[in-house]
Amino acid sequence: MKLAVVGVTGLVGSVMLKVLEEYGYETVDLVPVASSRSVGKTIDYFGKPRKIVSVEDAIAMKPEVAVFSAGASASLQYAPQFAAVGTFVIDNSSAWRMHDHVPLVVPEINANTITKDTKIIANPNCSTIQMVMALAPLHSAYTVKRLVISTYQSVTGTGVAAVKQLHDEIAGRDAVQVYPYPIHKNLFPHGGTFNEDGYTTEEQKLVDETRKILSSPAMRITSTVVRVPVTGGHSEAVNIEFERDFDLKDVVRLLNDFPGIIVYDDPKNNKYPMPLLSEGKNDTFVGRIRRDFSNPNSLNLWVVSDNLRKGAATNAIQIVEYLVKNQLITLNNNSL
What we know:
32% of the residues lie in helices and 22% in strands. By secondary structure, it is α/β, with parallel strands linked by helices. The strands form three sheets. It has a six-stranded mixed beta sheet with strand order 9-8-10-13-12-11.
């Protein structure tokens, strides 16, 4: 199987290669794709050099799958061209997420929305993925009525340049400002760009994407996104009001039984999820599970996940796995 990674030299693209190696995709005919300044250079995959090609050359190769992490404008331009030659496109940008005909997929929740005819598949926003992972089993049991979300998002969500700004500031070097303010020893309630209503694009994604993934267009959601000076993953304080009451033991059981969720919740022994715990891992960690006594049928959760892993690369490769296992594409590797 030919598998193209578009945006292979970026932060998420490099993690995608790591995840592919971890999943054992050694026999895949990898097609690394990047911008013109990187074409002709090589990247390492399973200890062997692979030559980077242009997106036009990759389209001509007609890969079975193309995983995109190259930004919305590139996805809008090139995803339909890949789809036209029969390629399944898994797009990590915001370009296609809210299109009615494009499934927005977290495999543990709604992989069944993918068919052989849905050639463009959207990967949700990183902060949305980890939250709906925790919400899905609880929504099925109690029905979510309202969400109040506060996120504490890693600089890795902005990309390589933002990580460099943080590291330069920590080291006392002159830093190129990706953000409007220093991020070291600072945080700011600003993710994405501001809309006319005062909310940011990152906050609106949490609203729109959660409703679509959980098939709940009337779900009441409000959010505040905060950028913080960490690199290990995104953290979220999620307040949930349900239609029905719940038992805390059942909440913990439902979360424990859901694939990809690890309940890490023992406050008496200082055990709770943190970016340091989630970094480099594919799971979503949930802790600080407690009833909200100020409102009926309400619950507080603290949700942490590596935004480059389950929030981006891992989720995309899990979609590839779904395509393979459901024979929507053919992979010549008996180990998978």
